Amino acid sequence: MLKESCVLEEISSSLDTSIPHISIILAAGHGKRLRSHLPKMLYEIWGVPTVVRVSRAARKGFATPNEIVVVGMKWKEVAHTLGKSPHRVFVFQKEQKGTGDAVKIALRAIPEDFAGNIYILPGDMGLIDAKILREFREAFEKSASQMFILTGEYEGDLRKNYYGRIVKKDDEVLEIVEYRDILSLSKPFTIDNHTFTAQELLNIREFNAGVYAFGHEQLRENIKKIKPDNVQKEYYLTDLVKIFRLQGLRVGAQKVENPSLLLGFNDRIVLKQMNNIARKNVYDKLKQIVTFEDPDDFFIAEEVAEKIIEMGGKEPVDITIGQGAYIGGGVKLSPQVVIGKNARLEGNVTLQEKVKIGDEVRMSSFAHQEIRVGRNTEIFWGDVIKGNVTIGENCRIESWVRITGNDEYPVKIGRKVLIKGNSYIFGCIIESEAEIEHSVLNRKKIKVLRDEKGNVKRIKYVLPPPEGEEAMEDLP
Ligand code: UD1
Ligand code: CA
Fold first, then answer.
1. Quick one: which ligand is closest to 173's CA?
2. How far apart are CA 289 and CA 281, in angstroms?
3. Is the CB of 358 within 6 Å of ligand 1?
4. Residue 330 dihedral angles phi and psi, to the nearest 5°
5. 130 three-class SS
6. Fewer Cβ atoms within 10 Å of its own Cβ: the N or the C terminal residue of the chain?
7. Which residues pair with 419 in a beta bridge?
8. What domain range is 74 assigned to?
9. 53 and 128 both lie in a single domain
């Protein structure tokens, strides 16, 4: 066995063939045109590597955890990014001989008598979502077609349309013609008594998105018949249209409403556009319940956005997000929370109702740590809060404060605590209602003492006097 296949076997699980669907993700190509060491599939769109997005969409949309991922170039990076997961299987395609060849290799991982459906999709469609794939699957299941293709209507400059063209009669697909094969046509192209010139084919706007559905048996039977007789000398999966039709089988298609969600990218400009589309999608979903200071400049991880939408179904949300704010995947927001400009929240951070996070604040924890901030608490400008930190309700943490709690010494701050600006706090436990002046506190437990009038005695604890003073003198 190839070395690659051995390594891949270790991070593969097994298929659950009692579930009647299997997805095949084609991820063996590299994306040469990006001129990068990073394979195309691993570029992030809205914070998530493209191939991970495709896999998530496929699992949900095709209603199956069964997934075969074909890897080739940069197989190690792609496989480790996706990682081991129940019912995910990796297979190795040594040479990129075409989409038909890639699928043939994937089919080796499926028992011959599997009686369900196979869904195929490219690993570089960073904006595809579960909804499109679910509707595609449902349309296939209802259709009388044996092969089903996802298509879109090309909206841009036709000269830059490199997709395979869908040749149709009524709603039946007659053929998919690859862009490069159109360019090399020496005579008009005839199919079913229709003749097309090369220009007529190029002018077809309906394109092949590269997503297909088949019954397993028919796919297995016919994939053997694909031959590499085209300009690229590749095994084209798209040749199955012809092969199915020759046997009187029907090939259908489902066209999506929003073709920008089918985009793949070959260069960094399109990658940027896709990120912008992703941002716009998140913005559109949230704009009724969240106030954005700048709709073109923010990041909210999709899982956080989904939780906000869920929350919005039950109660008013009224969250405000500052320009340039970054809200990572583990953050939990509550109604009426305000996030300042350029604030960056990463890791497990939970903010209760009406918490106010100032501009430029940084909050971060490792995966096993947690930061919690209670109702109504204000975290002022420029604060940095890291590690294991709990802050109670109604506190005021003024500007430029540093708070760090590690695993051994977490920070616990009670209710209604005031911490004045520029303080540094590490590993402390601070009782409710304490008031702390500009202080440096290292592993202290702080109780609240009151004078005769009941006023809280403020804490002001400065570092011990500096050492080595004799080695320095004032400059004139
Ligand atoms: C393919 C389609 C084209 C469609 C387009 C959509 C064919 C012949 N053409 O073209 O009609 O409009 O996708 O994006 O299928 N891959 C492998 N192994 C291979 C070759 C490709 O895993 O040997 C993977 C790639 O990594 C990629 C996907 O398959 O994720 C599509 O391959 P790509 O080379 O991008 O296909 P296109 O030529 O763009
Ligand atoms: Ca492509």
1. 1
2. 14
3. no
4. -90, 5
5. helix
6. C
7. 397, 436
8. 2-262
9. yes
Radius of gyration (Cα) for the chain, nearest Å?
29
> Does 7 lie in the same domain as 91?
yes
- The overall average pLDDT reported for the chain is 95
Residues measured by CB to lie within 5 Å of ligand 2, the ion: 264
Q: CATH number, domain at 214? A: 3.90.550.10
Higher pLDDT, 33 or 5: 5
Burial zone of 225 (CB within 10 Å; 0-12 exposed, 13-18 middle, 19+ buried): middle
pLDDT at 465 over 80: no
> Which atom, in ligand 1's list, is nearest to the CA of 176?
11
Query: Does residue 242 share a domain with residue 300?
Result: no
Question: What single-letter DSSP state applies at residue 116?
Answer: S
Residue type, position 121, single letter: L
Cβ-proximal residues to 273 (8 Å cutoff; 6+ apart), any chain: 263, 265
Q: Is the CB–ligand 1 distance for residue 340 below 6 Å?
A: no
Q: Is the dihedral of CA 196, 199, 201, 204 positive or negative?
A: negative
C-beta of 30 in contact with ligand 1 (< 6 A): no
Structural domain total, the chain: 2
Q: Which atom of ligand 1 is nearest to the CA of 207?
A: 12
Pocket test for ligand 1, best of 99, 175, 183 (most atoms within 8 A of CB): 99
Pairwise CA distance, residues 72 & 36, whole Å: 16
Tell me how far apart the alpha carbons of residues 302 and 63 are, in angstroms, rounded to a whole number.
Answer: 20
Express each pLDDT in 279-337 by its tens digit.
Answer: 999 999 999 999 999 999 999 999 999 999 999 999 999 999 999 999 999 999 999 99
Would you say 317 and 311 are in contact if contact means Cβ atoms under 8 Å apart? yes
Nearest protein CA to atom 21 of ligand 1, as residue: 99
